[in-house]
# Entry
Amino acid sequence: MTGDMSGTKSGAAGVSAEEPPFRFEPGGFLFVVSGPSGAGKGTLVERLVELRPECVFSISCTTRPPRPHEMDGKEYEFLTREEFERRRSAGRFLEWAEVHGNLYGTPVEPVDAGVRAGRVVVLDIDVQGGSSVRRARPDAVCAFIYPPSMDALRQRLTGRNTETPEVVARRLEVAPRELAQYREYDYLVINENLDRAVERLVAIVDAERARVRRLRASSDDAGPTRSDR
Ligand code: 5GP
# Structure
């Protein structure tokens, strides 16, 4: 027998197992977090972005009036219907939808810039927006947030005290149709326990960041995806 077969110290010309010849950098991607209103998407996304520095929240535009604690440019960019429609005609939204009587849209430019910069750009959008993004960006990673029960959904929607009883009733009415769409998604997260659901989202991000097809070589040495740079 010739050579060291342990595979730990020597191998092909100059390649040491302790030190790879190049470094890897995970590439960015779009992370769609969708599901019915009241499933808890907002809180989950907030926690994910706090926990993972590579994750950035995509600030949507909306024609809905701000709630008392909301600040323009933080939760949303609040627009008049006219301005929203102007931007929509100018092709500035990756997707847009009318949700419970108001217009919501994802600005395309910051999303694409974030992905190019290697970030995980997190979209908290409704299920119509989820379908549009899957069509426009087949590479997007899509997670569906499922409430533990219809009762829990009802409790969350009424407990928020941000909507009138009519709005809550409308949201509950469309929920079963929205829930049926989970099959179109890559991942299902049941939001029964907040901490566990957050852990799930973090695990999804970590796994997707480790995908070989997304890795980029970050040193000047030739790496496996050098031709992509
Ligand atoms: P809220 O008005 O309660 O903040 O949000 C209502 C719904 O609109 C939520 O389901 C939220 O995920 C969704 N939403 C927020 N931003 C967007 C967006 O840019 N596009 C779409 N399609 N839905 C959005």
Observations:
- Residues 37, 41, 60, 64, 95, 97, 99, 104-106, 124-126, 128-129 surround guanosine-5'-monophosphate (CB under 6 Å).
